[in-house]
Amino acid sequence: MLDTVKILIGDDSILARKKLKDIILQYGTPLFLEAKDGQETVDLYKKESPDLVFLDIVMPEKDGNTAIREIIDFDKDADIIIVSSVGTQSQLKAAIEAGAKDFIQKPVQPEIIHHIIASRFEGR
Q1: Residue 22 structural domain
Q2: Residues 40-62: pLDDT tens digits?
Q3: Which of 74, 93, 117, 123 counts the highest number of beta carbons within 10 A?
Q4: Are 7 and 54 in contact (CB under 8 A)?
Q5: Measured on CA atoms in the order 98, 55, 57, 82, is the torsion positive or negative?
Q6: C-alpha–C-alpha distance, residues 85 and 104, integer Å
Q7: What proportion of the chain, given as a percentage, has pLDDT over 90?
Q8: How far is CA 106 from CA 47, 71, 72, 83, 120, in A?
Q9: CA dist., res. 103 & res. 47, Å (int)
Q10: What pLDDT was estimated at residue 31?
Q11: What phi and psi values does residue 65 have, to the nearest 5 degrees?
């Protein structure tokens, strides 16, 4: 189901990126793109046009909410999911207002990732 899908993971933690990739690999083998900060996430998005983005909020260079706004300015249909341990209402509200489609609390629960993957790529 994921063999033709590009997924961009933007997180400054290499461990967080690996955990998310390991969960997603249970459902197929997409092409993974990885970014270690917000600026790299924006640059990779513009270059590769991934189908789905998982993005942390608190990162160096450029925070997740700034990255969301820049990606949405570039592609209003971008599918961005925030994955963060910073679960304050104001952060969540800012991310959704910036254009994120959903918010996942760390530590990531595999069944939530499954639901996101299935709802977007089932039958692909």
Answers
A1: 6-121
A2: 999 999 999 999 999 999 898 99
A3: 117
A4: yes
A5: positive
A6: 8
A7: 80
A8: 28, 23, 24, 6, 21
A9: 24
A10: 96
A11: -65, -35
How many Å separate Cα 20 from the centre of its chain? 10
Which residue type occupies 35? A
Provide the domain count of the chain.
1
Strand order in the sheet with 52-55: 31-35, 6-10, 52-55, 80-84, 102-105
Enter the DSSP assignment of 109.
P
Is residue 71 included in any domain, yes or no?
yes
CB atoms within 10 A of CB 14: 10
CATH number assigned to the domain comprising residue 15: 3.40.50.2300
pLDDT tens for 85-121 read 876 778 888 999 999 999 998 999 999 999 999 999 9
Q: Is the pTM of this model over 0.85?
A: yes
